[in-house]
Amino acid sequence: MLAANDSRGETQTYHIKSGQGFMIFPNQITTYVSDNHLPWEYVWIEFDGLRVKEALSIAGLSIDQPIYKARLKDLREDMMQEMLYISNHSDSAPFHLIGHLYLFFDALLRSITPEQQTNSKKLRDYYVRESLAYIEQNFQNDISVEDIAKVCGLNRSYFSKVFKEATGKSPQQFLLTYRMIKATELLKLTKLSIGDIGNAVGYANQLHFSRAFKNEYGISPREWRNNNYK
């Protein structure tokens, strides 16, 4: 049983069943006790951060609705394993632990009701939109996949997984293709030198730019310009 005050300060009582979980919010007064005949076996973690409110909202958890029930047993097991990993590796690097926290949230969001699953997809779409906007604004700079993932507040491996599921390409592949598309626009519409165009799309070394361009289109930037320049 869980007793907790809600948003109005009134105490609510919840009877927790097998496979369920509950969220305790900051500064919330709570009391919980297990059944005398069927005592609990449970795992818990504490977390905070800028995106926590958004993630919990998508999961349908709030101070007035603190109870969670796993829809699928295997995803409940995934959640438990991630919580145990975080608990047992508390001395690991912060970004490493954050990555496992996101894996916990991923299992949490995938194990909720179909309606909430739609909201989970919205969260992934948000991450992809954020990353695409960052690429569009910074493709000409020396940016890495880690830089893009950091903008989304994700670790590289989880971000790469989400991004590829949404776009069909890895972040590296997408960034390369985007830069080459911008390069063809400059080759076709300007008289800039090959070196200047390479620099304009994020390649300080002309040779590296030409090699990347040829890998993408099968011909050199100069040949492409000769075939397409207006």
Describe the structure.
The chain has ten helices and five strands, in the order E-E-E-E-H-E-H-H-H-H-H-H-H-H-H. Helix 2 (73-88) packs antiparallel against helix 3 (94-110) and helix 4 (114-138) packs across helix 6. The longest helix is centred in the middle third of the chain and has 25 residues, at 114-138. The protein is mainly alpha-helical and 230 residues long. 22% of the residues are buried. The termini are far apart. The chain has a domain at 174-228: Orthogonal Bundle (Arc Repressor Mutant, subunit A), CATH 1.10.10.60. The strands form two sheets. Strands 2-1-4 form a three-stranded antiparallel β-sheet, with no helix packed on it. Strands 3-5 form a two-stranded antiparallel ribbon. The mean pLDDT is 84.
Gross CATH architecture of the domain at 174-228: Orthogonal Bundle
The SSE string, one letter per element, is EEEEHEHHHHHHHHH
Question: What is the residue-mean pLDDT, rounded to a whole number?
Answer: 84
CATH topology of the domain at 174-228: Arc Repressor Mutant, subunit A
Quick synopsis:
57% of the residues lie in helices and 7% in strands.
Task: List descriptors.
mainly alpha, Arc Repressor Mutant, subunit A, 3-stranded antiparallel β-sheet, two-stranded antiparallel ribbon, elongated
List the helices and strands and how they pair.
Elements: E1 2-5, E2 11-14, E3 20-22, E4 30-32, H1 52-58, E5 67-69, H2 73-88, H3 94-110, H4 114-138, H5 145-152, H6 156-167, H7 171-189, H8 194-200, H9 206-217, H10 221-228
Antiparallel strand pairs: 1-2, 1-4, 3-5
